[in-house]
Amino acid sequence: MPLPISLGSSDFLQLRLEGSYYVDKSLFVAEILRGPSRVVLLPRPRRFGKTLNLSTLRYFVERPVGAGLKDGDVRRAFLGLEVEGSGEDVWARFQKHPVIFLTFKDVKGGGGSPGGVFAYLLGAEAGRLAPLFESVLSPADRASLDDLLYRRGSPALLAQSLYLLSKWLHQATGEKVFILIDEYDTPIHDAFGDEEQYQEVVGFFRNFFSAGLKDNPHLEKGVLTGILRVAKESMFSGLNNLQVYSLLRKDYATCFGFTEEEVDRICSDFELSRAQRDALRSWYNGYRFGGHVIYNPWSVLSFTAHRGDRPRAYWVNTGGDALIRNLLIESGLEIQNDIEALLRGESIEKPVDEHTVFRDLERKSEAVFSFLVMSGYLRADELLRIEDAGTEWWRLSVPNKEVSTAYKGLFRDWITTSVGGETHQRALCRAVLAGDASTVEAHLGTILERTLSYHDTAGRAKEVVYQAFVAGLLVALDSTHQVRSNRESGLGRCDVLIVPRRSGQPGVVLELKVLKASETMEQALAAALEQVRAKNYAGELQAAGAAPVVELAAVFDKKSVRVARGA
Questions:
Q1: Do 464 and 533 fall into the same domain?
Q2: Of 540, 538, 546, nearest to 503 (Cα)?
Q3: Residue 226: domain span
Q4: Which residues fall within 8 angstroms of residue 84, CB to CB, at 6 or more apart?
Q5: What confidence tens digit (pLDDT) does each residue in 157-207 have?
Q6: Is 385 part of a structural domain of the chain?
Q7: CA nearest 248: which of 348, 392, 401, 48?
Q8: Which of 374, 405, 436 is at the close of a domain?
């Protein structure tokens, strides 16, 4: 029988001593210790093993504090793992260094203020480490420690706390300090959208990281994990010793997530059937880290723990995607065509910047795609070119079925939040399939009236905006039909094509026009329907066995729309 899977546990020692199933990532320790970088930032998607890896590193290098662990417990936890054979240079660091370990996962809502969560976090860590150094403190340092312990430190003291703790530990033990910080960017995510809080958090962490990680003579190594690098936000201003290894880099590529070989071993250990293995691969495979095929570890273990029951969106449903949902909903029509193409299983070509700037997410719609790559919602398949300015263009796609379900959920949210609700959407879809032009016109008109701000066409190709708008509304048909925009069909390229997944179901050609100054609505509708017939846009529907084939035309003029059905 395989060992039990302990979902949600990210404490290395607890996993090992309790006899839980562990996928061996212990060589991460050797990579960090042998790496040339003094301060390392490792951005990866959530639930990809960042906290567990930091915990593993911590237990390996940390000098024991107090009488908490029995002699030999930590060494026993590493027996039989790959790091055991990594060499004398690595084991010379075993339990040698003091470690400051912080996680910012709960630093939200003004964590930079003395009365916030951050003050409690630092006070707790200072209290844990105090037995190592408090006997050698000067009276002034003792006063500073007391201020940290009793959560009454000034913002200036909190900003200097990393430096002070590392100085005291180094002086007391004679060994330089490891500073490990997990989920360092959570406070930035939480503050995004609140300008005052955002400026407070960024300003505080600029001083905090600079004091602790830049030119700190008491620092051995610093390791930070999170989702994004936000260096251009000035959080790491002047931190020239910081090396960032994003998921696009080859370094540390196999340390987070599961490789193909590791998944094969899991499937074998838990005796998953061929059908279960195929389901696991199609739902949770598909990431590319530094050129390696990587699986989502949270979903793989969740699927396996449930004995290969039908696949579910385990990772997507763990939450933590509120920022992504807001960004996609707010980007709305500007990226709808791209998201639609991704949901059809196609790829798109976009610039990807691993140094994503939060402010760009508000100003540049394409910055959203960099965020989606770094967050695990898109896969960077292939580097296509590097422009003169250093901009990297990548071919992007949806990693797997689990993430595809997330996008469909986001589309539903967009409909509910932005375009008038699901009632209008469902009624619109039924009317489109039935070829009920007057009902389609009524629902489109109502939705347009409510959501004009989402499709302001100033300075853009108006027809493209309306096309993305309509295609987004029709995404609810995905279970029975394929909704395609601007696809070749017949003798030309129609605006929206609704192709049935089974023969005998209705199929729809929908041609969209924006009213010209020289036209009437009737003239524009007639021209659109004539174009549908002349270019045989219905050809693909007939080949797919659609019955009946519906031809519709819609003409838009700002808030107004007219819809007509062909003969």
A1: yes
A2: 546
A3: 12-244
A4: 26, 78
A5: 999 999 999 999 999 999 999 999 999 888 877 777 677 777 788 888 888
A6: yes
A7: 392
A8: 405
